[in-house]
Amino acid sequence: MRKLFFSLTSLAVALAGVGHSARGAEADERAENPILPPGAALELLHTRVEKLNSGLTEGPAVAPDGFIYFTDLAFGKDNGMILHFDPRTRKTTIFARNAGKSNGLAFDRAGNLLSCDGADGGKRCIRRWNLQTGQSEVIVDRYQGKRFNSPNDLCLDGKGRLYFTDPRYSGSEPRELVHEAVYRLEADGSTVIEITHEVEKPNGVALSPDQRTLYIADHNNGGNRLSPSDPEPKRGAMKIHAFPLDAEGRVNGPRRTLYDFGKENGSDGMRVDTLGNLYVAARSLARPGILVISPAGKEQAFIPTGPVNQTGLFADWKGIPSNVEFGIGAEASTLYVTIDQGLHRIRLKTTGFHQQKAEK
């Protein structure tokens, strides 16, 4: 199997390309990095083979049996697919050929697959999939009677409640909701509430291990107008925010900005490890890779996924990550990463935290 050798040596080169030095002392320090083992490298596991219209892989999620499910999200008329990778056989197979523009994925405590289905011809809902039959059902598609913009990413808390983001990046469907917000669906599916709209365009979402902090990636690339007559929105925030939560899982204080990407593309999907560190798929063309930051926002490690200082349009980009997921069991220290139109993995020193399994 071919490997992408973005090792610790490559890390120093990548950092040098954006103004960081690579002195011997720093190399020694990185050899003792608490996140990355010496010689850590991304391994390519799957590359798209189906003929789909552009797009990217997204939404890796680990199933109870250790399989990694992920989406192949196409643009335009294609509805995309959901695939799964078997770590034991190293084979990738198709789970669903008509995925309704599924993006982020997660598993609930009953072992059902949940998908965020987007716009641009997609279902614009949260859907539940039965792994045995391959059948699915919509569990929520509206807030206060209005259709969601384009559900993007999701996470579950220890009580089985589902937090999900609802931005709009593409699609000509009329928007019914003024805000691009973050919502929560109760575990029994009875109620959906707005958690916050103090973000411009929410993307990735994750909970801290103690469930007291909700992390939200604000990735505002300009994007979709509320009405066709509105002026085209300008590019905005590229930040990672931390929202404090109370015992009921609601925001109960001002947000903190943990990381600001400035004028660069920011964070897509994210996960946390058992220490509370955030693993962020950073889509910066100047420095694409997996950024690991502490709960205080301090950089702990960086895993390059592509060349630095890229230019051009989407079709020209190489090595741009979209999302991450930790394995379970013997694979708990393996980080799976969707990059461009493929699936990769890398071994780490840390282990992933899976919130929905914490309070069974």
The Rg value, from CA coordinates, equals 19 Å
Percent strand equals 35-45%
- The mean pLDDT is 90
Judged by helices, strands and strand pairing, the structural class is mainly beta
Number of extended strands: 27
CATH superfamily grouping: TolB, C-terminal domain
Low-confidence stretches: 1-30
**Please, how many helices?**
2
Largest sheet report = 5 strands, antiparallel
The CATH class designation is: Mainly Beta
- Give the helices and strands as they follow along the chain: EHHEEEEEEEEEEEEEEEEEEEEEEEEEE
Share of helical residues: under 10%
Strands in their spatial order, largest beta sheet: 1-2-27-26-25
CATH level-two architecture: 6 Propeller
CATH topology: Neuraminidase
Domain count, please report it: 1
Shape: globular
Could you give the distance between the termini? 37 Å
Could you explain how this protein is built, in words?
This protein is mainly beta and 360 residues long. Strands 1-2-27-26-25 form a five-stranded antiparallel sheet, with no helix packed on it. The two termini are 37 Å apart. Strand 21 (267-272) and strand 22 (278-282) form a beta hairpin. Mean pLDDT is 90; it is low at 1-30. The protein has helices spanning 8-16, 24-31; strands at residues 3-4, 42-47, 56-62, 68-73, 81-86, 91-96, 102-107, 113-117, 125-129, 136-140, 142-143, 146-147, 154-156, 162-165, 182-185, 192-196, 202-207, 213-219, 238-244, 256-260, 267-272, 278-282, 289-293, 299-304, 321-326, 334-339, 342-347. It has one domain (3-357): 6 Propeller (Neuraminidase), CATH 2.120.10.30. It has two helices and 27 strands. It is 5% helix and 39% strand.
